[in-house]
Amino acid sequence: MARHMNKKLFLADYVYEVETDFGIDGTPATWASTNNGKPAHRYWDDEDDKIELRFFDGQESGEFGNFATSHDDKLVAASSGSVVGVYNLETKQHCMQFRGLAFPCVKLMFSPASTESGVYLLAIETSDREERKSAVFFMELDQDGHMTHKPDTIDVDDLLQRSLEPVVSVMNDSFGVHSPTPILESVREGYGKALEKLRAGVESRHLSHVAGRSSGFGSNPFSMDGQLFLYLIQNESTQSGPRAPADLPKVIVYDMVNKCEKHVLGGHEDAIMWTAFSPDSQYIATAAWDGTFRIFDVSTGDCKHVIGPTGGQCWSGAWSPDSKHVLLCGMANQDSRGETFVAVYSAETAEQVNRFRNEQLRHWVRCVAWSDRGEIAIVHETNNVWIWEPFEDKTIGNFKVKVDDRMRERYAAVSAVQWVSGGEILVARAGDDTVEIWNRVENVKWRIQRPEGSGIERGIGMLRWSRGDRALRSFGRDGVMRSYHL
């Protein structure tokens, strides 16, 4: 009998284990000493503090799919289907609930800076696969987290009832059909859905928006000053057949201040996977399935460099903190040998500085992070995480989750990494949402492990490092924020 695996089956009986721990030059990290009486290795429910985040009226556990926090960690936004809510972490108050989305929310992003008028800007990305439509709405929030402009709305239930009264009357007088009946209930259901879309359109009609979607795999769609935003159009793969140049995938540079297109960046001939502003906002780097990376000048929109073709699909990248170099990741070929391409280039000259080479590197690298100290965390889909110093071409150490069953491998693998505390600490999230925290300078570690049997509904939607109190915050799909002080 053929076996199969999904996330629910994986979490049902998986027990987290580490095969190779973080360390420096062969010296494994030791458990950190703590000052709060908590062990360095603990479980989700052994938090130092927790807050139930009330985003919506009548919210239920496990319903949250996306989270985002403001640049100052004051506000947190979450979505549940086509509803978005905002919570103020300082006042511990629910701020607003927005129901003006015709399609489900797939991503939330706060601008990295306040607008010129001093308000927060929340980007809400929606998508409908069946209709193949995507859009990003931009919502302004005041200092307390409320919408700066109250949306218009309609009472769907009242309008539905009043609209159907003539229909029910005619059906009753002419055919003796009384409400409720299956035929009238189907009309009520269909018309109700149409009115819900109408209400969503009315509530969102004053929000500025763009028709497109942002890219993934660690993309950085906002410039650091929040004045520019990147989104993609026509980004379907061309592998099923060629398209005219005008219909190929494009990157749009959107001016958030003037609410208009600044540049249309073309040249890629297949789906674009990754886009990112350099930290100084002078360059934009892109990676696409056509086997090339491109570097564009933000001020002119001109393509400054084309790197590749590499011989396979290109997936992701990361900018150095000083904007002088860019890490690019893809496949060097698509045949059975499956060689992976991970290399650092000069942004100014497009010359390759160093290429990461490892005999185990045979699968996609779609998650990377470049620290302020200059070290790069490279996440491999075979459960490896390598720490690489690119300018010395030195692998400092690596981490690996233990998986005995190959069917569980991709579910158990590390899915996200981030450097915090000035690049001294690496936070890595495994596939079961166990969190590994490693201090690169002191070579000590912490672990916040998922309890057995907690299920998908207990999953972590987002992790956030709190600089002020050196705490890691987890935002759970159960609507609870848990804080762990290190």
From TrEMBL:
InterPro entries membership: WD40/YVTN_repeat-like_dom_sf, WD40_repeat_dom_sf, WD40_rpt
WD repeats: 265-306, 407-439
Tagged with keyword Repeat: yes
Gene3D superfamilies: YVTN repeat-like/Quinoprotein amine dehydrogenase
Transmembrane segments: none
Keyword Repeat: yes
Keyword annotations from UniProtKB, A to Z: Repeat, WD repeat
PANTHER family hit by this protein: F-BOX AND WD REPEAT DOMAIN CONTAINING 7, WD40 REPEAT PROTEIN
Protein name as annotated: WD40 repeat-like protein
Annotated source species: Aureobasidium uvarum
